[in-house]
Protein 1
Amino acid sequence: MSKQVKIGKVTIGGGAPIAVQSMTNTPTSDAQATLRQIEALAAKGCDIVRASVPDEPSARAFKLICERSPLPVVADIHYDFRMAIAAVENGAAKVRLNPGNLGGEDKLKAVADCIKAHRIPVRVGVNGGSLDKKFAHLPSAEAMCASALEYCGMLEKHGVSDIVISVKSSCVKDMVECNRLLAKRCEYPLHLGVTEAGLYTQGLVKSAVGIGALLLDGIGDTIRVSLTDDPLKEVDAAAEILKAVGRYSKPYAEIIACPTCARTQINVKELAEKVREYTAGIHKNLQIAVMGCIVNGIGESAHCDIGVAGGKERSALFKDGKIIKTVDNKDILDELLKQIDKL
Ligand code: SF4
């Protein structure tokens, strides 16, 4: 089992629930816009948010962002050790950096001392696309793993041991293999993600395959679905991945809907969407089925808490595989929602 690390009020690793992360895409220097986005991410169910701190105006705004944010805020640092120190002093709950590109040992030591004084963890990030040439002779997954462990060693040398590792690659297979190696070779919590995953559908599928495969192996402590899209969609996608692998930690209503076929008697898509909207605010573990026909629908979703199976003029409401009543097709939605309220 991985070591536990605290990121503000959120614990990751060591069997804690898998934390969902996203990243703001507003200019960090615009504290109000960034806070609005963080609040929207929090409302969607995001647990931890990351913001880039590329310059001094961003570092100044970062202080207000950390003070007002409902979520722990991670500072994303590239190259400039002064930004790392400013972000930590201004309230970062974690700092994401590459110890190899801060400008040398003295600067790394200054950052490490600041991190230790503020008792926050560090995330070391290795990106498959920018690996040190000295690892070029190794297969990609081995090279990323070696690079990540080297980064950990550089921090450990300065007394930093609250470390989270992320190795990201746009190649799903490399990302999965590398995280499997890391899970065997170290105890640090792992942040999972497929980087530059792409536009919505491609990004969602690549992330679901890579993150999902690892979570099913019991590997991974926090996840980010990277999409070339609105960050709010990343949080929705992460939640769906966690639900699909049985690692979603909050109660929720699952809508089971048939794919429809020539037997379909009702508008399954419209009805399922309305039920999904209605149940979005219900925090109970429920399974609700919307099926297109009575012939196969009831049998295919017999385990549901409540379901509807379409008929020509009247549809059947069923529970635990048995019909409890039939309703006129124009009343299906109202009747189904009434039944859901009783659950
Ligand atoms: S439940 Fe009925 S309508 Fe839906 S896919 Fe199966 S056979 Fe077709």
Note: The chain has two domains: 5-244, 253-342.
Protein 2
Amino acid sequence: MLELKNITKVCGANVLANDDVSISVRKGTIHAIVGENGAGKSTIMKIAYGFYNADSGEIFFNGNRVAIKTPQDAIALGIGMVHQHFMLVDNMTVAENIILGAETGSPISLDLDKANRDIKALSEELRLNIDPTALIEDLSVGQQQRVELLKALYRNAELLILDEPTAVLSPQEVDEFFGILRRMKDQGKTIIIITHKLDEVLAISDDVTVMRSGKVVGNVKTADTNAKELAKMIVGREVLLRVEKPDAHPGEPVLEVNDLSVRGRHGHGVRGMSFTVRNSEIVGVAGIEGNGQTELIEALAGLVPIDGGSVRFEGRDITNIGARRTKELGIAHVPEDRHKRGLLLRSNLAENAILGVHHRPPISTSGGLLNENAINQRVTEIIDRFDVRPPNPETTAKSLSGGNQQKLIIGREFELNPKLLLVSQPTRGVDIGAIEFIHRKVIELRDAGSAVLLVSAELEEVTALADRLLVFREGKIVGEVGPKTTSVEEIGLMMTGS
Ligand SMILES: Nc1ncnc2c1ncn2[C@@H]1O[C@H](COP(=O)(O)OP(=O)(O)OP(=O)(O)O)[C@@H](O)[C@H]1O
Ligand SMILES: [Mg+2]
């Protein structure tokens, strides 16, 4: 259905993002594309969608050579794409987003009533459970993603390109989502999916293409491969697919949360939670997304107001003191939504590296001026230690690949040597080599004395990293368990309340 032949693309000043890439996708199949952060996966797919134009190479669609210069060209051919980072307008409804086609700027139809009906029908057909009249800003990331899917389907896409669609979904949502993809495949649609999760590749795809450093390094049939072999092809070496950590030696309480409540945005919010995190321990949160995790972390980081109860840090009350003062006390925060909360996309790596500490020494002098040397030193350290690629402080955060953006945020927050680290979805969108690395860093921080509160939708990740596990349901803590002594099945049952 789609053949990309000998595509080469230089991005920015001199990054060879795609180097003679050829990929062939068979009609009616699900084709996975895997590879390290920065390997060129998003770039090659943006070329197929007309978002970028190749410097050289050819594209064939249904056997015909085509010129895809803009997304409109791709849409006209029946190609749809859901980007790694969504392109929805927050203060508009689902239907408005879909018919206005935010990225093409051309209104497809302005009959809102009809659109509402059509979108509702489409949503019901594939069991997407989306209300066309809902405002985007009121939807969870998982729901927003299904809106992106609806947007492509509404425009009659026959080939759907999905760039890391599951990165923002909980494991339960992934199962549902794969159900949707299989139904779409049964309807004859062709799907290209980029993902870092090998179990997903094995579960859903027919064919796999592996990319590394801008090139295709392998093509295999899914049925003929396994996770170990794929990992090796991706990274070019053996990867440890599990976490090894020494026992914790917790010290004094650092964070004491007492009967906390925080209003919910999508889900339940926080409804009366009490717990403690001590020095040198990792407390993990297990729970289905939308059960209070987001609100808890954002409230502790000072980003949203606390409605009831109190928070103490090293013995003093810090309830509602705000984000800046929270950070000044030595509390670092890796947010779940790296674009909204984590980065200034139009700013460069150096500017992003000092975000949150830009107003104090050594970054700022006592006279209020920025210290260029200190900034350079900080950004270089983060780039080196966290392997941010390309290693150029002048590049904009926007031009980094998704996984490299995440490494930049992780590096910035970890390098503060925080007394308390609030970390949400630390390895979302990160390749398997970098996951191994980030996990090691979290354990190093713990062993250097930090208190860590970790939220992850990946049950495997929290159980592997946490020393103690809090199980959340409907905004409450329904249990505290030892990850070593409790099975994943038991934790799953507590999460769902069954
Ligand atoms: N607009 C741009 N300007 C400059 N460089 C870019 C731009 N877009 C991509 N790049 C660079 O091209 C390379 C490939 O990026 P791409 O986003 O395709 O990687 P990826 O395989 O999708 O990675 P990830 O798994 O992290 O999403 C990276 O080095 C990236 O920094
Ligand atoms: Mg990408």
Note: Residues 253-496 form a domain with the Rossmann fold fold (CATH 3.40.50.300).
